[in-house]
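[Discussion] Sanity-checking designs against the backbone

I'm trying to build intuition for which residues belong where. Below is a C-alpha cell string of 506 positions. I'd appreciate it if someone posts a full sequence so I can compare it with mine line by line.
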C-alpha cells in the first residue's frame, strides 16, 4: 500500500497543532513549545531519532533543562522536508513480543540542511547557548583512513574544505564552527560522537586536530580546543530498520494524522557515555544511560558481538536470498554460524566489565535478531562494508591470530563480504546492489576476476580495508581462499552450516 492510500491523509499532518488530538498514550513526554535549543546534532537520521533524541526527551521530562535539539542533515534536504512541516515532531513505533507501542517524540526543535545553509549551521555551533554537539553520521563521513587511523587528507572533500575554508564535510563543519565559537567568546563545549568507531571520542578529537594542523595560524585554535572542548567516548545500541510506506500507513491509523518522519525500533536500547563534559548536559542517566569512566569494554562487546554478527548475517543472508535479518537467523546454518562466531571467535577477545554476563548478552542478541516485527533488511546492514569490516570483524581476527587461534567463523564473514562484492549476485543469481563508498575502487581492483585466489589477493591489497599485518598473514589468506571457494561452490547456506559444525562451539 502506498503512502497516498492512507485513509487519514485528509485529516492532516502531524504538527504542534495536532498534538492535542492525539491519543493520550501517543503524546510526547514533554511540551515542545518554547523549549530552547541546547544541542546541535549532526546526522539527524532514523537512528538518532530512535535513540539519543528519545533519551534526551526522557531526560528533560525527568529533570528539566533547555535541551532542545537542532538537527542537521548532511547529504540531502530530505529530512528537512519531512520534519520541518511537522514542527520537528515525529513518531516512534516500538515493536517486540507484545503489542506495538507508538509515541510522538518532541525533543527536535530545529532541522537544517548543512549544505543549503552552511553559515547558519556554523553560527548555531558558535552560539554560547549550545553546550553539546552530538553526531551520528556513519563511519564513512569521518573521512578516516582505517589503515593509518589518520584523516584522509587526499579525500577531495577534505582537501576542498582545507583549501577554501568551506564546511562540506563533518570535520570541516566541526572545525569551522569551533573556530567561530572561539572568536565570539569561547564558551566551553562537548562534542559527543555516537558512531560505531572504536574509541570514537579519541578518534574524533584526533581527526579534528589533524584538520586544524593544516590550517593557517592554527595554534590559537588548537590551544582553545585543548582547554575548552571535550570529546567523550560513547557506545550506542538499538536496532532501527528502514521505515516502510506500510509502517507509515499503520501509524497514521493510530495517530489520526499522517507522519512522514516515523521511525521503527525494538524495545531494547543502550547508551554508555564517558562522563567527561566541558559544561552542562542533560540528565541522560535519568533516562537509562550509563555514565562511566571507561566506555571501551562496552564498546568492544557491542562492535564485535552485535555489529560483527550483524555483518555476518547480512552478507551470508544476502547471498542466500534472505531479505530480513529475522529470516537469516531463522536458517539453521546461519544461526549456528553466528552463534559460533560469538562464542568461539569473539568472546575470547573480550574482557567484560565486572558483573556483565557475556553469555546472557549473546542469548539476548540472538533473540533480538530473531524479532520478526522489525523487518531489518540484510541489504541495509550490508551497506558500506569496506568502512565497517575493520571495526566489526578484523579486530577480532587480529586478536585471535595473535593469540595463536584460527578464527574461522570470523574469517567466513569476511569471505562472505568478498563473495558479495566480487560475484555481485546471490546464490540464486539475483543481482546484488553494492552500496559502498569504495564500490568503484573495489570493482577496478578486481577487474572482473572471479577465481577465489585472485579475488582474495586483490581485496587483501586494499590498505583502506586490510592493514598490512593481516594482508601479509599467509595462513589467513589461505583460509580466506578456502572459504571463498566453498561459498562459490556450495552456496552460503551449506557453507555456513558445515563451517559452524566443524569450527563452532562444542
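Best answer:
Here's mine. Compare freely.
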Amino acid at each position: 500500500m502506498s503512502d497516498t492510500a492512507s485513509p487519514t491523509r485528509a485529516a492532516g499532518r502531524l504538527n504542534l497543532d495536532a498534538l492535542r488530538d492525539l491519543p493520550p498514550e501517543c503524546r510526547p513526554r514533554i511540551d515542545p513549545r518554547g523549549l530552547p535549543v541546547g544541542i546541535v546534532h549532526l546526522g539527524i537520521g532514523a537512528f538518532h531519532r530512535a535513540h539519543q533524541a528519545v533519551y534526551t526527551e526522557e531526560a528533560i521530562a525527568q529533570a528539566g533543562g533547555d535541551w532542545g535539539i537542532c538537527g542537521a542533515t548532511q547529504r540531502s534536504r530530505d529530512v528537512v522536508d519531512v520534519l520541518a512541516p511537522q514542527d520537528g515532531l515525529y513518531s516512534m513505533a516500538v515493536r517486540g513480543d507484545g503489542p506495538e507501542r507508538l509515541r510522538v517524540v518532541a525533543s527536535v526543535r530545529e532541522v537544517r540542511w548543512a549544505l543549503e545553509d552552511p553559515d547558519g549551521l556554523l553560527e548555531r555551533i558558535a552560539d554560547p547557548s549550545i553546550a553539546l554537539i552530538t553526531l551520528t553520521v556513519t563511519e564513512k563521513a569521518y573521512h578516516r583512513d582505517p589503515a593509518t587511523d589518520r584523516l584522509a587528507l587526499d579525500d577531495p572533500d577534505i582537501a576542498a574544505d582545507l583549501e577554501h575554508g568551506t564546511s562540506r564535510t563533518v570535520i570541516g563543519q566541526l572545525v569551522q564552527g569551533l573556530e567561530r565559537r572561539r572568536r565570539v567568546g569561547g564558551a566551553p563545549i562537548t562534542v559527543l560522537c555516537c558512531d560505531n568507531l572504536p574509541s570514537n571520542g579519541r578518534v574524533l578529537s584526533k581527526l579534528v586536530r589533524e584538520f586544524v594542523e593544516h590550517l593557517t595560524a592554527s595554534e590559537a585554535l588548537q590551544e582553545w580546543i585543548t582547554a575548552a572542548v571535550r570529546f567523550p567516548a560513547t557506545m550506542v545500541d538499538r536496532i532501527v530498520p528502514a521505515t516502510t510506506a506500510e509502517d507509515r500507513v499503520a501509524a497514521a491509523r493510530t495517530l489520526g494524522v499522517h507522519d512522514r518522519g516515523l521511525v521503527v525500533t525494538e524495545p531494547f536500547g543502550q547508551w554508555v557515555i564517558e562522563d567527561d563534559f566541558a559544561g552542562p548536559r542533560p540528565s541522560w542517566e535519568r533516562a537509562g544511560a550509563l555514565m562511566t569512566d571507561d566506555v571501551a569494554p562496552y564498546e568492544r562487546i557491542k562492535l564485535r558481538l552485535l555489529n560483527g554478527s550483524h555483518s555476518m548475517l547480512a552478507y551470508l543472508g544476502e547471498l542466500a536470498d534472505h531479505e530480513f535479518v529475522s529470516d537469516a537467523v531463522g536458517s539453521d546454518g546461519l544461526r549456528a554460524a553466528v552463534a559460533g562466531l560469538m562464542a568461539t571467535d569473539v568472546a575470547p577477545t573480550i574482557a567484560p566489565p565486572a558483573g556483565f554476563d557475556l553469555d546472557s548478552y549473546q542469548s539476548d542478541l540472538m533473540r533480538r535478531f530473531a524479532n520478526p516485527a522489525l523487518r531489518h533488511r540484510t541489504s541495509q546492514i550490508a551497506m558500506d562494508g569496506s568502512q565497517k569490516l575493520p571495526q566489526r570483524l578484523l579486530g577480532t581476527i587480529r586478536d585471535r591470530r595473535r593469540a595463536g587461534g584460527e578464527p574461522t567463523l570470523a574469517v567466513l564473514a569476511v569471505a562472505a563480504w568478498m563473495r558479495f562484492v566480487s560475484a555481485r549476485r546471490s546464490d540464486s543469481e539475483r543481482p546484488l546492489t553494492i552500496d559502498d563508498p569504495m564500490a568503484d575502487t573495489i570493482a577496478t581492483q578486481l577487474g572482473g576476476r572471479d577465481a577465489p585466489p585472485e579475488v582474495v589477493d586483490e581485496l587483501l591489497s586494499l590498505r583502506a580495508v586490510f592493514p598490512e599485518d593481516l594482508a601479509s598473514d599467509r595462513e589467513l589468506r589461505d583460509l580466506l581462499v578456502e572459504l571463498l571457494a566453498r561459498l562459490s561452490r556450495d552456496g552460503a547456506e551449506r557453507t555456513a552450516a558445515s563451517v559452524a559444525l566443524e569450527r563452532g562451539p562444542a
